[in-house]
Amino acid sequence: MRILGVASATAALALGVAGNALACNIRDFSAVASCDDNGKGIITVTDTDATGVEATVSVYLESNGADVKLVGSEKVKGTREGATVTFSEDWAPKGVYRVRIKAGNIVDEDISPQLTAPSEACKTNETPSPSETPVTPEPSETPSSPDSSETPSASPSESESDSTAPATTGDNSPSPAAGESNLAETGANSNTPVIAGIAGALVVVGGAAVFFGMRRRGGSKAS
Predict the structure, then answer these.
(1) What CATH fold (topology level) applies to the domain 13-116?
(2) 4 in helix, strand or coil?
(3) 3-state SS assignment for residue 182
(4) pLDDT score for 220
């Protein structure tokens, strides 16, 4: 009986140790601050609890031993290979974070030691899109195009030339001569006035000759 009791105690102790080894505990959790493929800061918490107990992971930014803000809170079920949860965080170099793990009534404590970010910040690898490409301003010395309101008015000569009506272009046939127009109006040629003047002068000369002739003849009879 004594031997049987010792064997039973030994088996119970072994089972207890094995159970404690398989149970979820804080040593199954780890945290690291790193950069993703786009150069953004992230905090990754890994759960290697093979029993798969669901745990809640909460990450806090610390300053002088006090919580500054809650970065995020996520649930995770561990695996032997390790299950992870990731939090986006633009961490500052050497920033300090507290990671709290709560798994039912089994675990309710912080990962120790607290998480400290790397000494160098992430470098973004994103190429700016066309809309984000800075636009180079044009030199201020370049004169801007004048507005239509600033267009100078036409010069006086141009205005006069534009306002003057174009001369009416007649046909190319020659205009009738002055003589021809008079001829058409009176029925005689242009020499008629000259001839009439000469005839009148001859009448006057003839009349004077007759007058003087008759006067001489009367004087001779009286003597």
Answers:
(1) Immunoglobulin-like (2.60.40)
(2) helix
(3) helix
(4) 62
Averages of pLDDT over runs of 10 residues in the chain (223 residues) are 50 43 85 95 96 96 95 96 96 97 95 96 69 63 55 51 51 51 50 77 83 73 55
Domain map (residue ranges) of the chain: 13-116, 188-217
Query: What is the structure's pLDDT at 7?
Result: 47
Place of tokens 């030691």: 113
85 within 8 A of 44, measured Cβ to Cβ? yes
List, as own/partner pairs, every contact residues 123-130 make where C-beta atoms lie below 8 angstroms and the sequence separation is at least 24, other chains included.
Answer: 123/35, 123/39, 124/38, 124/39, 124/40, 125/37, 125/38, 125/39, 126/38, 126/39
What is the phi-psi region of residue 71: left when phi exceeds 0, alpha when psi lies from -120 to 50, beta otherwise? alpha
Task: From residue 141, give the alpha-carbon distance in Å to each of 136, 137, 138, 149, 150.
Answer: 14, 11, 9, 22, 19
pLDDT of residue 12: 45
Question: Helix, strand or coil for residue 46?
Answer: strand
Written as one string, the DSSP assignment of 51-76 is T--EEEEEEEEEETTEEEEEEEEEEE
